[in-house]
Amino acid sequence: MIHQYKLNGYNIIVDVYSGSIHVVDDVAYDVINLYQNRSKDEIIQNILSKYKTDKTVTKDSILELMDDIETLKKNNQLFTEDTFSDMATQYKQNSNVIKALCLHVAHTCNLNCEYCFASQGKYHGERALMSEDVGKRAIDFLIEHSGQRHNLEVDFFGGEPLMNLDVVKKIVSYARSLEKKYDKHFRFTLTTNGVNLNDDVIDYLNQEMDNVVLSLDGRKEVHDSTRKTITGKGSYDIVVPKFLNFVKKRGDKSYYMRGTFTHNNVDFTNDIFHMADLGFRELSMEPVVCSQDEPYALNDKDLPKLKEQYEILAKEMLKREKQGRGFTFYHYMLDLKNGPCIYKRLSGCGSGTEYMAVTPWGELYPCHQFVGDKKYSLGNIYDGIKNKELVEKFKNSNIYTRPKCQDCWAKLYCSGGCFANAYHATGDINGVYDYGCELFKKRIECAIMMQVAKNQN
Amino acid sequence: MKRIQTLNTRTLVNQNLCTAGCGECQTSCQSACKTSCGVANQKCEHIN
Q1: Is residue A17 within 8 Å of A87, Cβ to Cβ?
Q2: Do A344 and B29 touch (CB under 8 A)?
Q3: Nearest CA to CA, how far is A4 from chain B (Å)?
Q4: What is the pTM of this model?
Q5: A327-360 pLDDT, tens digit each
Q6: What is the dihedral of CA A334, A283, A455, A310, to 10 degrees?
Q7: CA within 20 to 30 Å of A236's CA: A102, A180, A184, A225, which one?
Q8: CB count, 10 Å around CB of A158?
Q9: Is the Cβ pair B13, A191 closer than 8 Å?
Q10: Residue A34 backbone class (left: φ over 0; alpha: ψ -120 to 50; beta: rest)
Q11: Smallest CA–CA distance from B28 into chain A, residue
Q12: Is residue A198's pLDDT more than 90?
């Protein structure tokens, strides 16, 4: 399977099952488009007719091009066959390792954001803070189930995790104390709204957190319209100075300035550019996750505008990079030479299998987006996995078990997408969240185009 | 090739468990997104 598209002046061919990417001229673009459904003679006639004013396009030159296409085919770089269907289920079935936990250390929040999928941190339940004992037991549970994996990940999430920082510190300290004994390396991340950041907190996060995700929605009026304090005021003026201080002290360590866009700021690239203009360099911006009944939900009319925005973003990023003021965008980061292996691409996000969320009470869910939905409770960190049938369902779900993914060129980039999005959109983790797919495909097209553009320079 | 330029990419073909599938890379949702999924932007962290 191939995917071919034109963007920003480039003709791009993606060979789905090898991951190869080709930049071609107009003639090759047309020949490749016809190659699998027409005879050689038909293609030659078609191309000679279309390019009759172009003297470089002769029968011999087309035959030479066809030889090149055959060479690429032989080298598994074009029209590569799908040989992965059996590997997908087999790989996930053979793995019983848990390597990442999302610890919900605080089911409470000091902001009251309108669009919060976690219902202002409460996840539709009671407000609660994780205790030190639950946190430590979660670390033990992770080590016990991690097999030979060396790198283990723990994400401190909420609600607002800085509302329970003392426990975060104790959990980190406990995990560090076990690294040598069990030959493990913990990588910690924390997601914060920034309200509780101060110099001491920042120094601690910079010392212990491999990555910190900072929530900012961009322009002041956009941010303030949804990310409000408990008293209903906008939080932009509270958090932006703190974020600037954080990033200044962060040095070379990773962080993400992460925003959410809604129907109310479909022109979200202006929010990304605002963040970049403030001096933030590692940026992420995600579509809102909410019921279609909400007034800020993205709708079908927004879709073409959003796709256009992604193109604007990619072109502006290339321009700014040339000017020496570039920034990164999470979804445009593609490492073509050292990217994920085929097993990673087949196995997906790992939720419900190698990645789970832990509530303040120690209950296990497939991921943070399922927390509070009792049907998706997997068990707890004391008694282990109780709902083995559900874990099996996650294990058996991959791009080959989703009928809609079969003909999709982007499936080895998204790996089947987000289980929670699929579930919330269709009622089934094996469903497909079409709206998200449309955005994802556009983002990958843009990301690949940016790689092509950089390669051309 | 005159009309085709191929970028240098990691091929997905004929990878095996000796060189792939070690599972040491970051869980995709643990990074920045938290509300969508993609593996394309993840780095390989293969340990020999």
Answers
A1: no
A2: no
A3: 13
A4: 0.95
A5: 999 999 998 988 888 888 888 888 999 999 999 9
A6: 90
A7: A102
A8: 27
A9: no
A10: alpha
A11: A349
A12: yes
